[in-house]
Design brief:
It is a single chain. This protein is mainly β. The chain folds into two domains: about 60 residues, no CATH class; about 200 residues, Fumarylacetoacetase-like, C-terminal domain (Fumarylacetoacetate hydrolase, domain 2, Alpha-Beta Complex), CATH 3.90.850.10. About 15% of the residues lie in helices and about 40% in strands. The chain contains five helices and 20 strands. The radius of gyration is 18 Å and the shape is globular. The chain starts with a strand and ends with a strand. The structure holds magnesium ion. The site of magnesium ion has 8 residues, from strand 6.
């Protein structure tokens, strides 16, 4: 199952995504997940199957973030080399922080560099989409039962404010600091390792495999849900590999992984 969320003729829709002749296409409409209350208000039901939909190239669709999370929980320092490149110790348990839903940015949306910061970094990451309400998850249980699928995210970070503030709320929480998409897929094989790459202006800057996670998916879920309930549609960013670096106005930043497409965003001064 792969799906995206998009605007078409002024309305929000969900679409089934598939590969045709090597290109990504929205091949049909899909049912909205239960957490998208705005969609249900707009359409009065879980589907928008009231019109005939012609397949649409994902590259030409007016994509939205594929998720409408109640919260975005992030793991810091989940790859050894990234912890070390910022001069940090390898953590003994997952380090958690939030990004607000107001930081969400659609694929091809513009990351705005805030005037309050002099250093804004990219952090390409794999993100999991929660599939049902979960509390006190046991790390020995099968995490597939509570994870709907995966997507790509960019944990944009104002590095100077992150160092200056005791809390990371400001550094991680600016509007446009959480690009997500373009699609959600449940067809990844995490056990085989998923390679996440980040490019800036076409140049490869980050390349990491989920096989190098310090804390794997089940452990991350156990730690988060020992503290808080995860709701259907919530987003969990799993940490970034080494190679983070600053963005400047005019840059194009792309996060990609096989089976998840490319999350591309441009960068402009605010
Ligand atoms: Mg991060």
């Amino acid at each position: 199952m792969r799906y995206c969320r998009f605007l078409f003729e002024g309305s929000t829709h969900y679409g089934k995504v598939d590969v045709r002749a090597g290109e990504w296409w929205i091949v049909d409409l899909a049912e909205a997940p239960e957490e998208d209350l705005a969609f249900r208000l707009q359409h009065g039901r879980a589907t928008s199957w009231s019109f005939d939909f012609e397949p649409l190239s994902l590259a030409e669709a007016d994509l939205l973030p594929p998720v409408t999370p109640s919260k975005i929980v992030c793991v810091g320092r989940n790859y050894r080399e990234h912890a070390q490149e910022l001069g940090n110790e390898i953590p003994k348990e997952p380090l958690l922080f939030f990004k607000p839903p107001s930081s969400l940015l659609k694929p091809r949306g513009v990351v705005r560099l805030p005037g309050l910061s002099e250093r804004v970094d990219f952090e390409g990451e794999l993100a999991m989409v929660i599939g049902k309400r979960v509390r006190n998850f046991d790390a020995t249980a099968d995490w597939h039962t509570v994870v709907r699928g995966f997507t790509l995210a960019n944990d944009i970070s104002a590095r100077d404010l992150q160092k200056k503030d005791a809390q990371w709320t400001r550094a991680k929480g600016f509007d446009t600091f959480c690009p997500v998409g373009p699609l959600v897929s449940d067809e990844l094989n995490l056990d085989a390792g998923v390679t996440i790459e980040t490019r800036v202006n076409g140049e490869l800057r980050q390349r990491g495999t989920t096989k190098d996670f310090i804390f794997p998916i089940a452990g991350v879920l156990e730690t988060i849900t020992a503290a808080m309930t995860l709701e259907s549609g919530d987003l969990v960013l799993t940490g970034t590999p080494s190679g983070v670096g600053p963005l400047k106005a005019g840059d194009v930043v792309e996060v990609s992984a096989a089976g998840l497409g490319v999350l591309a965003n441009t960068v402009e001064a605010d």
